């Protein structure tokens, strides 16, 4: 016999609970990865993210080979065929047990339910286990109503309390558990399957390899170096885009090259054993990793957010712009005439990444200044981000659009010029990404005169922030009143 571990967004060997459990069974382990072009398209996965997953898979394959674990990569065009094809493969390999780590998005849960059912019909034990959050979703509920939290701060207190009371939650899974028996070399050769090819061209791949080398060992060294060098100052530097003060670990979290458990385990160790309450940079960082897990608890607790419906369904009634294309195009291509916004949108197109502060400012601008449905923005981010992650992206967008859990109040609207003045005081970030403005000096970088715009070939502002933000407040107010 043999046991199969189906890798999804958990592309690492260390601290992988499904793989660990599989490797304890005392039979050879086969690693499986399924590539479904239709599924990637349906979920608007960025080619940059797919490329990152494929590169990470390459690293994983090498690490697995060192433990004599073969990796089989199967391409299944249509996503509805995935459970059936997996069942066939498992039977073909004479295995009767399969492990995978749970993904909490509705489509993925439905897919896994189908697989469990097919498994039962075919004598295959399908084990879908908790792994992606340090505290599994469902474990934390409010004291008063015993329902999932909808506010971050009390959720985070409960999360830290749980990690403190139950320190085993932060124990890392060694990998593989006990060196599982391996197949004879001859049999291993039967598992040769090529990696999927990258959807990107060579030039793009080389840009992204430089920015984000793939794989779990890169993730671990970034984590270590972040905690040793930038961690302490994180709270003060994280919002300033010209300072590289954050961990840049999000693509690794999203592909599962790194788990929250590992991240918090090491952060705690370099924070004198503390998770929170001390107010330092690493405390702050742990709470940001907490936001990642929080949004996963939210999608597990309130699955309607996975189905194109805001957490507060009332806000589906907001009167979004009926013909969004011209303004949406200006926003997407970084031609709104708002320098801080345009810099960030061009940064996103080039690097497939954007710092958190800019994600908040550009997203709020789309919903509140341009009155464009936040779901269009959510899809656009997803189509480009190398760290695209449904729960974080959906959570971030619905926070900015004031329609999500613990969202930004609708009347608090970022002023894009002031945000630039505050977080990019000298305009370094703007000059880097908006070359038309590179010779503009002083405060004018944040709001160039008509004269300069014309001379430098930089567009006039497509809307007036003062006017549009008032219109947005009135629109939200009207809907809130009805509710
Ligand atoms: P750090 O500041 O070093 O934080 C460490 C880790 O904590 C991150 O890698 C990430 O996993 C997690 N994290 C930090 N902030 C948040 C947050 N606000 N919400 C959830 N998790 C967080 N993050 C994604 O990983 N994928 C997305 O698709 C995504 N879309 C977003 C869309 C919008 C509109 C907004 C406002 C935020 C979005 N974020 C998303 C969250 C955040 O912007 C990124 O995680 C962060 O910028 C990544 O940089 P970093 O790894 O250097 O983060």
The CATH class of the largest domain? Mainly Alpha
Count of discrete structural domains: 3
User: Which percent bin holds the helix content?
Assistant: 40-55%
CATH architecture assignment of the largest domain: Orthogonal Bundle
Tally of contiguous helical segments:
22
CATH topology of the largest domain, by name, is DNA Cyclobutane Dipyrimidine Photolyase, subunit A, domain 3
- Going by helix content, strand content and strand pairing, the class is mainly alpha
Query: What is the CA-atom radius of gyration, in angstroms?
Result: 23 Å
Keywords: Chromophore, FAD, Flavoprotein, Lyase
Site (Electron transfer via tryptophanyl radical): 320, 374, 397
Family: Belongs to the DNA photolyase class-1 family.
Protein name: Similar to Deoxyribodipyrimidine photo-lyase acc. no. P27526
